[in-house]
Amino acid sequence: MFRVGVGYDAHRLVKGRKLILGGMEVPFEKGLEGHSDADVLCHAIMDAILGAAGLGDIGQMFPDDDPAFKGVSSLGLLYTLVEYCRRKRKVRIVNVDATVVAQRPKLAPYILQMRAILSKAMGIPPERVSVKATTTEGMGFTGTGEGMAAYAVVMIEEEEPEEVGGDGRRPVTSGY
Ligand SMILES: [Zn+2]
After folding, report:
1. Is residue 169 included in any domain, yes or no?
2. pTM (2 decimals)?
3. What spacing in Å lies between the alpha carbon of 163 and ligand 1's midpoint?
4. Do 62 and 77 meet the contact criterion of CB atoms below 8 Å apart?
5. pLDDT averaged over consecutive 10-residue blocks of the chain (176 residues)?
6. Which domain, by its residues, includes 93?
7. Residue 168 is assigned to a structural domain of this protein
């Protein structure tokens, strides 16, 4: 069965932090503030996966008051989540489509590398991981540079439970 999930995240931009987006460091004078590395793109994707799988949200799975997750790599958490879904829930990622909202810096030069890094963490080809970047033309908190936001949509496929009839064949599903 196919299922779809949506994720959204936002973080404040501050001085004295590295800017980590899509699992890579992007050169910029500010970075995103947060308990982890504040990778807003990874967080939106993780929330979309959790939503599709019906597993709650990122705060429930990786609590931000847990010292174990202080400064942790969000890419590592994404990998952990995808592995958990695959092994324990028989769920695999079909594709991801994400948008990062930021006035600055220009993200176009880094998009291909982000897609490669994210697809490797999720164990799917880069063609199935779309990352886009947009500005809000100076409007709102992303436009003023106060922060960045990210949206993600993820499709997952859940393995059907093995239902085998008495004669060893899969039951015929009734049409309607
Ligand atoms: Zn976040």
Report:
1. no
2. 0.90
3. 40
4. yes
5. 97 98 98 95 98 94 84 93 94 97 97 98 98 97 98 94 61 56
6. 2-158
7. no
